[in-house]
Specification:
The chain has one domain: Thrombin, subunit H (Beta Barrel). It has 1 helix and 6 strands. A 6-stranded antiparallel barrel has the order 1-2-3-6-5-4. The relative contact order is 0.25.
Length: about 120
């Protein structure tokens, strides 16, 4: 039996996110300098994403709050993996990342599912 081609699945996900999604930026903030006087610098990484409403069934008794967004983030062209310290710019508006779930069957990240909050 042939092994499943996850690279092909990742390419399909990237194509669909690029076609039906939008451009955004993943902002990485770094502290440089001494601890007593740090200097914050930020670097933006271009990305493709799909911005979706959270299901109302998930809002309430969970960690999901009203206004939270679910984002599918493409791995295509993204040179870094998202972290909780990063920010996601959607339509020029900065969102904090609350949760990160990679869809990674077989060890290949097909796309990232993020929960973001304004």
């Amino acid at each position: 039996m042939a092994a499943f081609d996850y690279d092909r699945t990742r390419a399909t996900a990237a194509r669909l996110i690029a076609r039906f999604g939008q451009k955004g930026s993943l902002r990485r903030i770094a502290n440089t300098g001494p601890d007593y006087d740090p200097v914050q610098t930020s670097e933006d990484f271009a990305c493709s994403l799909v911005d979706l409403d959270q299901s109302q069934a998930h809002v309430g008794d969970t960690l999901i709050q009203r206004g939270d967004r679910m984002v599918y983030l493409s791995t295509e062209g993204l040179s870094i993996a998202p972290t909780l310290a990063d920010r996601l710019l959607i339509g020029g508006t900065e969102h904090s990342i609350v949760d990160i779930q990679p869809l990674s069957p077989g060890g290949t990240v097909v796309f990232w599912q993020l929960q973001v909050r304004r």
